[in-house]
What does this fold into?
Amino acid sequence: MSDALTLQARALAESASRDLHEASGEAELARVKSSYLGKGGSISALLKQIPTLDPEQRRGAGSAINEAKKKVEALFVERRAAIKDEALGASAGHVDVTLPGRLDWQGHEHPVTRAWNEITDIFVSMGFTIAEGPEVETDWHCFTALNIPPGHPAREMQDTFYVDDNVVLRTHTSPVQVRTMLHNDPPLRVICPGVVYRRDNDITHTPMFHQVEGLVVDQGTTMAELRGTLAAFARAFFGPKTKVRFRPSYFPFTEPSAEVDVSCPFCEDRTIGCRVCKDTRWLEVLGSGMVDPAVFDQIDRPEYDSRVVQGFAFGMGIDRMAMLKYGIGDLRLLFENDQRLLEQF
Ligand code: DAH
It folds into this structure.
């Protein structure tokens, strides 16, 4: 009896091995295994007979049946791994078009660059051309030619970075007006974006910042044209509902001069608590005015006879425009390059 069981167990192990090798998929493999080791499986049936044997016979037959069971289990695991590998190997070299793609990381413009481009684009669309000038500038271009007299605070050491007695880091982009008139004939319509420097550093001032200067020179140019141009700009930049107001002001290089305010774009549906305009409803955005004839007189060219040509000019801080448009509370944030801020744009 026990010898017969032993032989049966070995025969079953052998046939199981054949069947497992022939099984072609995971499901078939599981079926084969269960036909030997499952509840009604043939090896399981032998195992059930062990308790009926004499104690001396039990050992020999028991170990043969258990051996058969272990063999089948081990072969099952081995074959299952092999079948998985085959399936993977078959798909190697094929592209799974259903996988989500890997997106390229995209950089983007710094908010100051964005404001710079938006501002220049608007003026270019109105027919302005772009002019540039040096950041290291002579005292004459930066101050004297713009009717900024000696003793004016803008010329003082505590406000201006001096390179030597007659050379400064430009404190505004207005000297590009002078350079443009020295080298180009009227009619003129230019904007001059650029970097400027002042000895200042607090929540609303940084020692380096950006400005855009504008200059229009022609015959018959009027204050009405200045107002129309700047109002159109403000609506293009801040939105079509923007209101614009002009306040009398003073700049040495313009006469008359006006400061331009726009209605606060953050106040639309708020009646109280605007942190941008502090509930004044207006934001000061730029300085402007009709070119002072004294500036034309500094340009030693007959084309700029102050009795014949008129013009208007304006200047604005690009960083300030970016802060106002994008709601950034501290100017210095624009120069810290903190990714947590920059990634929001
Ligand atoms: N240059 C002035 C500044 O830096 C800005 C400015 C005001 C420019 C009025 C102008 C102007 O051309 O007309 O504050």
